[in-house]
Design brief:
The chain has about 280 residues and is an all-alpha fold. It has a domain of about 140 residues. It has eleven helices and no strands. Helix 4 crosses helix 10. The chain is globular, with a radius of gyration of 19 Å. It starts with a helix and ends in a 12-residue tail after the last helix. The C terminus is likely disordered.
Length: about 280
């Protein structure tokens, strides 16, 4: 409960910075750094005022919307459709956004250590599965507002989030704690592309909110713990290479999905559809 309380304030700060700089393309990269930096300081500062809680998880929940899942998704689809010149710069830009988030969190941890040690790491306690499923669904509904989704698309946006969450949980049950980002992204991509076959529908309506669920989930809290130097058991495995490897698997999963279910533009006209968020 305290983690959700703190994540609300971290997310509020991140949202104000994000939406306050939408009209400034120059500040797009800087806002990722600034939001992660200030959010981390707020999460760490509240450890001095509130009962013990997992500050890393609270921070992670608050900055989730800053993860560049949209850029990664569009870049992946462009690569799958053969638009290498457009897709590769998008993916590189997404990587820069990841790095700016990481630098902001690491900078906040470094600054905090000048005044004292980082707060102790508390092991997380998972919510009951049904309650978790309900919370994810509510989050999907809120995400439809952030995406400016049409009312008729709300159910599909929530469905994309729940599908991604379910695929992630299932792969972890079958393949261990890490799961398979490739399989999860593949399932999500196939579902989104099948949805996009309908009239006046865009695959991104399902794929983009699902990727916002997958990208933070697999890149994970362990990477933030490592950046803050909290020294958990999994920190050795949570280095930059692992983050890049997970991102690559997510991209490859979407690419494979376009092979199994070619986008509607390729089927109808033999040419790729210009990437767009459509109703989302």
């Amino acid at each position: 409960g305290w983690e959700m309380f703190v994540a609300f304030f971290v997310g509020l700060i991140a949202g104000l910075i994000h939406f306050g700089t939408l009209n400034s393309h120059r500040a797009d990269l800087q806002k990722s750094f600034l939001a992660a930096f200030l959010g981390a300081l707020v999460a760490l500062g509240l450890t001095l005022l509130l009962p013990p809680f997992n500050a890393v998880r609270a921070l992670f929940g608050g900055v989730t919307l800053l993860v560049p899942a949209m850029v990664v998704t569009l870049g992946s689809l462009e690569l799958a459709l053969g638009a290498v010149e457009a897709g590769l710069p998008r993916l590189m830009y997404g990587l820069l956004r990841f790095l700016m988030l990481g630098v902001g969190i690491a900078a906040a941890g470094t600054l905090w250590r000048f005044g004292g040690p980082l707060p102790p790491h508390f092991e997380p306690h998972a919510l009951p599965p049904l309650l978790t499923f309900f919370v994810v669904a509510v989050g999907g509904g809120a995400l439809s507002v952030c995406m400016s989704g049409r009312p008729r698309d709300v159910a599909w946006i929530v469905g994309g989030v729940l599908l991604a969450y379910g695929a992630q949980v299932l792969t972890k049950m079958l393949l261990g704690d890490r799961g398979s980002p490739l399989l999860s992204a593949f399932v999500l991509g196939v579902a989104g592309l099948l949805y996009g076959r309908g009239r006046d529908r865009m695959p991104m309506t399902v794929i983009m909110p699902g990727m916002l669920q997958l990208t933070p989930g697999f890149i994970g809290t362990e990477a933030i713990v490592a950046l803050l130097g909290a020294g958990t058991a999994g920190a050795e495995d949570a280095r930059l290479f692992n983050v890049l490897l997970v991102a690559l698997q997510l991209v490859l999963g979407l690419v494979l999905a376009t092979v199994v279910v070619p986008p509607r533009g390729l089927v109808d006209r033999g040419a790729p559809v210009p990437p767009s968020a459509g109703g989302a």
